[in-house]
Amino acid sequence: MLDSAVYLPEPAVQLHAIAEFRALEAARGELTSELDHLRSFRSALLAGLLNREVEIPETYDSFLEKVS
Question: What is the mean pLDDT of residues 6-33?
């Protein structure tokens, strides 16, 4: 028969784990927000290119300078 006991870490270890999970959740939120901004930028850029409102420069360096 299997032992049905469940191991629980010490309270200090549990608190540390909770803090780590909260930090990961905050980072995930920031990354999700950044992804939303990048998707909006891509959409606006593609629309501008298709409407000929944005021209592709001869070098990507000058293009990157304008958008950054």
Answer: 96
